[in-house]
Specification:
The chain is of the alpha/beta class and about 260 residues long. Helices cover about 40% and strands about 20% of the residues. The N terminus is likely disordered.
Length: about 260
C-alpha cells in the first residue's frame, strides 16, 4: 500500500496538477468526462465555466492545471485527454507540429496581461518604464517571483518585458523561479518574495496581493491563449464543451478574472 501511495504522489507531482485535476487517465478510460489540460492561470475562470456547463447539460469534466510547457510534454508523452488550453502560442505550436491536435479545432481563445505584484500591505510604488528601479525595490535580499523564464509562458513574457525595459541584467540573479505562474503568485501572497510578475488574472484571484503596475503591451509578445482538441480524442462532448466556452454565457467567467475573450 505504501508503495502505491508513493507512486500516486509522484505522478501528481510530475503532472504539476492543482485543484480538480489529476484524473486524466482515469477519466479518459471511463469515457465519460471531458478531460482538459489547461494552463494554471485559467483555474478560477475555467472551474466556474465548467461547473455551469455541468449544471446545464449534466456532462462532467476533469481538469488538470499546470504550466503549459508541462502539459505539452504530457501530451507528447501520450496522456489521454480531450482538450488543451495553452497560455501561449509556441506551446500549442509545439503539439501541433507533432500532429497531436485536430488542426481545424484550434482557435485563439483569450488574451491576458502581465503585471508586477506585491503583498497587499506593501508600500512599494513603481512606475514601470524604461530603466525603472526594480532592483532597488527588492531590497537587500528580496527575490522577484516569476514562473520559469525559459519554459513557462508567464515567465517568458516577464523576462521579455524586463529585457525590453532594460532592467533584466539588474535582477536576473534575484529571480525566484517557480514551476508555474500560480506558484509564483503564492510566493508573493505568503510573503516569501516582496515582488512578483504574474498575469493580471492571477493577481485578481488573490486578495493577499496588489498590483503595483502593468507592463506595457509593447514590451512582450502578445499574450494569447489558444485551445484545440487533441488528435487522440474521440469524446463528442469535448466539442460541445468548446462550443460552450465560446458562447456569451461563458464570457463573464473569464472577463471577471480579467481575461479578454477573443472573437
Amino acid at each position: 500500500m505504501l508503495g502505491t501511495r508513493r507512486v500516486f504522489a509522484a505522478a501528481l507531482a510530475a503532472a504539476l496538477v492543482m485543484g480538480s485535476g489529476g484524473f486524466a487517465h482515469e477519466a479518459a478510460a471511463q469515457g465519460k468526462d471531458v478531460v482538459i489540460l489547461a494552463a494554471a492561470s485559467l483555474k478560477n475562470a475555467l472551474d466556474e465555466a465548467s461547473a455551469t456547463w455541468t449544471r446545464q447539460t449534466g456532462k462532467t469534466t476533469r481538469i488538470s492545471y499546470a504550466a503549459s510547457s508541462a502539459l505539452a510534454r504530457q501530451i507528447e508523452g501520450g496522456i489521454p485527454a480531450d482538450l488543451f488550453i495553452s497560455a501561449d502560442v509556441p506551446w500549442m505550436d509545439y503539439v501541433a507540429e507533432r500532429k497531436l491536435i485536430k488542426p481545424a479545432s484550434r482557435s485563439d481563445f483569450l488574451g491576458n496581461q502581465i503585471v508586477l505584484i506585491s503583498g497587499k500591505d506593501s508600500k512599494v510604488d513603481l512606475k514601470i518604464d524604461k530603466g525603472f528601479n526594480l532592483r532597488g525595490a527588492l531590497g537587500i535580499d528580496g527575490r522577484l517571483a516569476m514562473a520559469n523564464v525559459d519554459a513557462v509562458p508567464a515567465g517568458k513574457y516577464g523576462k521579455a518585458a524586463l529585457e525590453y525595459l532594460g532592467v533584466w541584467p539588474s535582477v536576473s540573479d534575484r529571480v525566484a523561479q517557480a514551476e508555474n505562474v500560480r506558484m509564483a503568485l503564492t510566493l508573493v501572497s505568503r510573503g516569501e518574495a516582496p515582488l512578483g510578475i504574474v498575469y493580471k488574472t492571477d493577481a485578481a484571484s488573490d486578495p493577499a496581493v496588489r498590483i503595483v503596475g502593468a507592463f506595457p503591451a509593447a514590451s512582450h509578445p502578445a499574450i494569447i491563449y489558444p485551445m484545440a482538441l487533441l488528435a487522440s480524442s474521440s469524446n463528442p462532448d469535448a466539442q460541445a464543451f468548446v462550443d460552450f466556452l465560446k458562447t456569451p454565457a461563458a464570457q463573464p467567467f473569464f472577463e471577471k478574472q480579467g481575461f479578454a475573450v477573443l472573437k
